[in-house]
Write a structure and sequence with these properties.
The complex is a heterodimer of chains A (245) and B (256). Chain A is mostly helical and 245 residues long. Chain A has eleven helices and two strands, in the order αααββαααααααα. Chain A has a two-stranded antiparallel ribbon with strand order 1-2. Chain B has one domain. In chain B, 80% of the residues lie in helices and 0% in strands. Chain B is built from eleven helices and no strands. The longest helix of chain B is centred in the first third of the chain and has 34 residues. The chains are: A mainly alpha (245), B mainly alpha (256).
Chain lengths: 245, 256
């Protein structure tokens, strides 16, 4: 007696499929693979950075922070497009500034756009573009000095050591000292040491004396250090005066 | 044409009309047109370009979604109501059933493609609109076949719809995914990276690069890219044939 077929079987064997269907499937598979081989290999092409999209900036559904973050992440990953890495030198910096400004206007409390401007996009060895980024940071620093002084301080250091432009560094340091009352003391004192480096000993001495006199410096160690610097400036001034006589 | 295939195609197309697929398509397209006019008004320059840039991809997505859901729903209903079993109990070859259904769905897809394409004539040269519309029709035919294959193979809505959505997303971004996999930012020699590249390359063999189909750029440039359409047509023909054969393969192996 032949064994009964299992009643639970839901699939028939492949031999039950008509040969025409199998042949069509095989032919179609071969055609698909040959067609795939005939197609040109995908080539990476660098897209230009366009203007930041206006629509999401308006229609953010009450969530501008999220839109700002998307803008920043898009911008940040723009130099790594599928299959190609674009050097910063090929980026359109005025356009980059527009993206950063858009993100900052959507989320003014975020430091991310200024961090990108001062620490990422200013790494390019191109003085013009470094200045462009630093000017952007200074412009935006004035909107909220107490919150944004760190990025301008970085620009001041960059202006002094990389751009070799002490007067630009002094401009940034002065802006921090005059506008950012809550900035760390090292940042607020930066202009004094810049003046000293520039040979403006009189101005540096007056500012340092004023700083010590008005009681802004409360830490004893810091006070001692600054007093020593003031004394060394005084002695340098006297020796310079004696030499001139 | 075989009368059995013709009869099934006729009733499938009729089902498309009676389940109001075309009316829903008109309403959906009207809503997208209204939104695109809004986008046009927001733009300070190149309003027409902005309007097309919004309308074309949204309308294409809407058409693909409607057609895919219609096919899944229709075949699933026949499977669950045992209508398919009743049909197959008669003197009807399974291949005629699949081809008849495919033809009927294709008629509905062609109507939807027409509804989506016609409004573009108000904005762009007819040659560019014709190429775009024909490419959309090919894309919809491909999705009809894929949806039919998915629902016959998986027999449940969730896996079928999930596979369909994942496939469409993957195929629409195939070129970018391949480029990203082949040029990684970090650790290009890592085993995981090499495995990923091999997997993506293998999938690319059996997936059409939909990002080259129905491009909005054809409309905004105003030029009819006939060679691109010819390329799309050949790929669509091969892929539809392969999917139909795979659907038949699965259906012939099933016991009811």
């Amino acid at each position: 007696m032949a064994p009964a077929r299992k009643p639970t079987a839901t699939e028939r064997p492949i031999r039950d499929v008509p040969w025409r269907v199998l042949a069509a499937l095989m032919i179609a598979l071969v055609l698909q693979c040959s067609w795939h081989f005939r197609q040109p290999a995908p080539a990476a092409t660098a897209a230009d950075l366009g203007a930041p999209p206006v629509l999401p900036q308006r229609l953010h559904g009450g969530d501008p922070i999220s839109v700002a973050q998307w803008l920043l992440l898009y911008l940040q990953s723009f130099d790594n497009q599928p299959g190609i890495s674009i050097p910063f030198s090929r980026l359109d910096y005025p356009q980059v500034l527009r993206w950063l400004a858009s993100a900052l206007s959507l989320d003014p409390a975020s430091s991310y756009p200024l961090l990108m401007a001062s620490q990422i996009y200013s790494q390019l060895p191109d003085a013009g573009r470094q200045r462009m980024m630093c000017d952007f940071v200074q412009e935006r620093f004035m909107e909220a000095p107490d919150a944004r002084w760190r990025w301008l301080a970085h620009c001041a250091i960059m202006a002094k050591h990389r751009l070799k432009d002490p007067s630009l560094a002094l401009r940034y340091a002065t802006a921090i000292a005059e506008s950012a009352g809550k900035a760390s003391s090292w940042a607020r004192q930066m202009r004094i040491f810049l003046l000293e480096d520039m040979g403006e000993l009189d101005s540096a001495r007056v500012l340092l004396g004023g700083l010590l006199a008005n009681g802004e410096v409360t830490d004893d160690t810091e006070k001692r250090f600054l007093t020593e610097r003031l004394l060394s400036m005084e002695s340098a001034r006297k020796s310079t005066g004696a030499t001139n006589k | 044409m075989n009368p059995q295939i013709r009869a099934i195609a006729h009733y499938t197309a009729l089902e498309g009309r009676r389940t109001r697929v075309l009316i829903i398509a008109v309403i959906g397209i009207a809503a997208i047109i209204a939104a695109s006019v809004f986008v046009r008004e927001l733009a300070v320059a190149e309003g027409g370009r902005f309007q097309t840039g919004f309308y074309a991809p949204m309308a294409r997505l809407c058409a693909v979604f409607m057609i895919a859901v219609h096919v899944l729903g229709s075949v699933l209903r026949e499977l669950e109501d045992k209508g398919l079993e009743l049909l197959l109990a008669s003197d009807l070859p399974r291949s005629h059933y699949v081809l008849g259904k495919w033809l009927g769905f294709s008629i509905t897809a062609a109507s939807v493609a027409l509804i989506v394409t016609l409004p573009l004539l108000a904005l762009h040269p007819w040659q560019a609109v014709l190429v775009w519309g024909l490419s959309l029709l090919l894309e919809l035919l491909m999705m009809v076949t894929l949806a039919q294959f998915c629902i016959v193979t998986f027999t449940h809505l969730l896996p079928a719809a999930g596979f369909l959505a994942a496939f469409y997303l993957f195929a629409r971004n195939l070129t970018a995914i391949r480029l990203m996999a082949e040029h990684p930012i970090a650790a290009p020699d890592a085993l995981s990276q090499q495995l990923m590249v091999s997997l993506i390359d293998a999938l690319a063999f059996v997936t059409p690069a939909l990002d080259r189909w129905t491009q909005t750029a054809w409309l905004v440039s105003g030029s009819a890219d006939w060679p691109a359409l010819a390329n799309t047509a050949v790929q669509a023909a091969i892929y539809v044939l392969m999917l139909l054969a795979a659907t038949l393969f699965d259906l012939y192996r099933r016991n009811f």
